[in-house]
Amino acid sequence: MLSYGPHKIKTPVVLAPMAGITNTAFRRLCQDYGGGLYVAEMVTSRALVEENPTSWRLASHHQSEKIRSVQLYGVDPKTIGQAIEMLLERDRADHIDLNFGCPVPKVTRKGGGAALPWKEDLFAAIVKQAVKSAEGVPVTVKMRKGIDDDHLTFLDAGKAARDAGVSAVALHGRTAVQYYSGQADWQAIAELRESLPDVQVLGNGDIWSAEDAVRMMKQTGVDGIVVGRGCLGRPWLFRDLEQAIDQYLENPTADISFEQVQPNLQGVIAAFRKHAELLVEFFENEEHACRDIRKHVAWYFKGYPVGGDIRASLARVESIEQMDEILSKLDGELPYPGKEAEGPRGRQGNAKKKCVLPENWLESRKLSDAHSRELLEAELSVSGG
Predict the structure, then answer these.
(1) CA angle 273, 300, 317 (to 5 degrees)
(2) C-alpha to C-alpha distance for 72 and 56, rounded to whole angstroms
């Protein structure tokens, strides 16, 4: 069980915020399958302070979401504090997560995202201000191992976050240079767990199944796990996670035995269509919802014998009526294809040769005036990581 302030999360599973994915529609779909904490996709603190309507929409929740969880990205303590105060004044959040994991070059080249914890004073100042402004509302931190293997920050940042009063620290076991490539370093997650015995630690990276989740908890000793790409096109994964992890926590030495959700094609069709309906409700615009669901087609139908023409038609769908017409051509009785429907999905790519950073960023762990000015540009149009 996770304890975030007054909130008790029986199944210690967190949906990782993913830009363009974890809006209200997807969160509602996932929570119908299993317990956990479902975090909204990241918004920038500056956008909230500047009253950007799109960002405020992303920071909204459906009445069925019991813990309204918002992830913020920011590079300035004052702006982070203002954004949190606005969220609470408008009664829009029960939990604040801070993102220090974005590896995207357009963010790191300004010193933001996964590059920011290198500047120890700035990182500590942001987290301290967030906790202060939250006034008892739980604050958590999500971060990466560091910039690269020669510039690791996770142990120092974890301790700084703990000292600032966060409820939990989540670590993605990759560096910024790795992006989403290679294998997540679960040993680093175990090191963080061992170094922070007095705060909850969560692990993130390469959890594609409930078995992976239990294996991470056993190997690292973490209090919970964070799932991102593993649930793309597979919202039912949260039912597997709930069954397996609850069983593991009840008896950590026993073998885990549960009935994996293995939907036939009709089950996938039903989830896909439900997702589209929820997107219509979220965007209040059917055409926009249909454009948004297109990127989910490959994930939902991964491994199923759905022809290229059907997939291409769904990837161009413009209305729910047209979607139904396309889906009606499929044989819903086709069974679950097994391993072909499982495993890695979403962003992967190759590791970068180096992390793009501001000039002379690595020369000091302290923030210079020049870098402080450059950081002001880091909060423009970013995505989570």
Answers:
(1) 55
(2) 12
Average pLDDT, the chain: 94
Positions marked active-site: 102
With contact defined as beta carbons under 8 Å apart, do 138 and 2 qualify? no
Q: Does the pLDDT of residue 349 top 70, yes or no?
A: no
Degrees, nearest 5: CA angle 171-242-209: 60
CA–CA gap between residue 45 and residue 164 (Å, rounded): 19
State the angle between helix axes of 154-164 and 120-134 in degrees (0 to 180), rounded to the nearest 10.
30
**Residue range(s) occupied by CATH 3.20.20.70 in the chain:** 2-260+348-375
The answer to whether 118 and 361 are in contact (CB under 8 A) is: yes
The predicted-structure confidence for 90-136, as pLDDT tens digits, reads as follows 999 999 999 999 898 888 888 889 999 999 999 999 999 999 999 99
CATH superfamily of 2-260+348-375: Aldolase class I (3.20.20.70)
pLDDT band, residue 385 (cuts 50/70/90): very low
How far apart (Å, rounded) are the C-alpha atoms in residues 308 and 23?
Answer: 28
pLDDT range class, residue 266, cuts 50, 70, 90: very high
How large is the average pLDDT for residues 154-183?
Answer: 96
DSSP-assigned states of every residue in 42-81: PEEHHHHHTT-HHHHHHT---TT-SS-EEEEE-S-HHHHH
Residue entry with tokens 């491994």: 303
Q: Is the pTM of this model over 0.90?
A: yes
Q: In what order do the strands lie in the sheet with 168-172?
A: 37-38, 13-15, 224-227, 200-204, 168-172, 139-144, 95-100, 69-73, 43-44
The reply to whether CATH 2.60.120 applies to domain 265-335 is no
